[in-house]
UniProtKB/TrEMBL annotation:
Microtubule inner protein component of sperm flagellar doublet microtubules. This is Tektin. InterPro entries: Tektin-like, Tektins. GO terms for cellular component: axoneme; microtubule cytoskeleton; nucleus. The keyword Lipid metabolism does not apply. It is found in: Cytoplasm, Cytoskeleton, Cilium axoneme; Cytoplasm, Cytoskeleton, Flagellum axoneme. GO terms for biological process: cilium assembly; cilium movement involved in cell motility.
Length: 401
């Protein structure tokens, strides 16, 4: 009956309690491990979150620093660009001044050359290399030298403008790149974890393209700034040089122009004085000619007036030669008649005075012609210097450009 009551396939109650205890123990152990794992997971999540936030915050700070750095260099480049643009505009103004000054030299040079050409028309003794001609030649040389100097300075100015524009181009390109980079970094700074349309970009981690070091980046912009500063300083020096050249050349031109004008005034006065003296001499010669003509007329009349007395004396002698015999006496009357005839004949034969007078009259006539010709020479010289040259030179205007 006891065998029937005990089934060998059934477990002992102790085993049941043991199995239940083991299940509890295993479950508690698993639960403990799971709780530890959960705690570790939350700790890890918290640590990762803090690390991510810290890293992202650090990146944001560096991004902000980078933006400020770009803004700084952009401002520097903007300042240098404004300065170089201003200097270029000023240099263009100075270029126009040079061009006007160069153009202003042409008319005085043409006038100086025309004066030299006109004065070649002087004739006779007046065709002289006088002070006026010396000063005119010097004026032409001064003007040609100034034209050459201004032309060379204009070439320097054009070259400096080209260099300024080259520096401006470099600044413009750098500024354009800085603007693009700042726009990109501004966009990056605006991104947050909640910004829509942010994406995964696996290829972003690849360092492709022409990346440069921060030092090279700074050196590049610094080089552009230094280049702009150098060209700006060169422009300032060139402007000072142009100012000096324009002032000095204007003074030189004005001084030489006055030297020429003074030489003209002195020469005209000298020629007028000479002409006045010649006219005085001509009047004197004409008076002397009139006197000599009267003298010749008087001499001729005197000779003619002696014909009667000589005829009377000779007739008396002829008649007394016919006295008869001893009456043909060489008395005092005959002696006086002989002396009278001899004296009159002697005076009549002294026609050399008349010949000399006539020669003097011819000489006076030649002198008159010579003086009249010389006066015409002086009138021609005065017309050239006073009318053609001096009036033409009144149009010469030397300005400070």
């Amino acid at each position: 009956m006891a065998r029937l009551l005990q089934d060998p396939s059934k477990l002992h109650p102790s085993e049941w309690y043991t199995a239940n205890n083991m299940q509890c123990a295993s479950t508690e152990s698993q639960k403990s491990r799971s709780e530890c794992m959960i705690a570790e997971s939350w700790r890890l999540v918290d640590e990762i979150e803090k690390t991510t936030q810290k890293t992202q915050s650090d990146v944001n700070k560096k991004l902000e620093q980078r933006r400020e750095e770009i803004k700084f260099w952009k401002q520097e480049l903007d300042n240098k660009l404004g300065q170089i643009v201003h200097e270029t505009e000023m240099l263009l103004t100075f270029k126009k001044r040079l061009e006007r000054a160069l153009e202003g030299c042409k008319e005085p040079l043409v006038i100086a050359q025309k004066c030299l050409l006109y004065r070649q028309r002087r004739v006779g003794i007046d065709l002289v290399h006088d002070e006026v001609e010396q000063e005119l030649v010097k004026e032409a040389e001064v003007l040609q030298g100034i034209i050459a100097l201004l032309g060379h300075t204009l070439e320097q100015t054009n070259e400096q403008i080209r260099r300024n524009r080259s520096a401006k181009y470099s600044l413009d390109m750098d500024l354009k790149d800085k603007f693009t980079a700042l726009t990109i970094d501004d966009y990056c700074a605006s991104l947050t974890n909640d910004t829509p349309h942010i994406i995964y970009a696996d290829n972003a981690m690849k360092l492709e393209g022409n990346f440069v070091s921060p030092e090279d980046w700074i050196d590049f912009s610094n080089l552009n700034v230094e280049k702009a500063d150098k060209q700006r300083n060169n422009s300032l020096a060139l402007k000072a040089l142009i100012d000096s050249i324009l002032s000095q050349t204007a003074n030189d031109m004005r001084k030489q122009c006055e030297m020429v004008n003074a030489a003209f005034r002195n020469r005209v006065k000298e020629v007028k004085d000479a002409k006045h003296k010649l006219e005085t001499l001509l009047a004197m010669v004409m008076d002397e000619t009139a006197s000599q003509e009267k003298n010749i007329a008087a001499l001729k009349k005197a000779i003619a007036d002696k014909e009667g007395p000589v005829k009377v004396a000779q007739t008396r002698l002829e008649a007394r030669n016919h006295r008869p015999n001893l009456e043909l006496c060489y008395d005092t009357v005959h002696s006086s008649l002989m002396s009278e005839v001899q004296e009159i004949n002697k005076n009549i034969q002294r026609q050399d005075a008349l010949a000399q007078a006539q020669e003097e009259l011819k000489a006076l006539s030649r002198r008159q012609l010579s003086l009249e010709e010389e006066i015409k020479v002086k009138e021609n010289s005065l017309y050239i210097d006073e009318v053609l040259c001096m009036q033409m030179r009144e149009s010469v205007c030397i300005n400070n450009y």
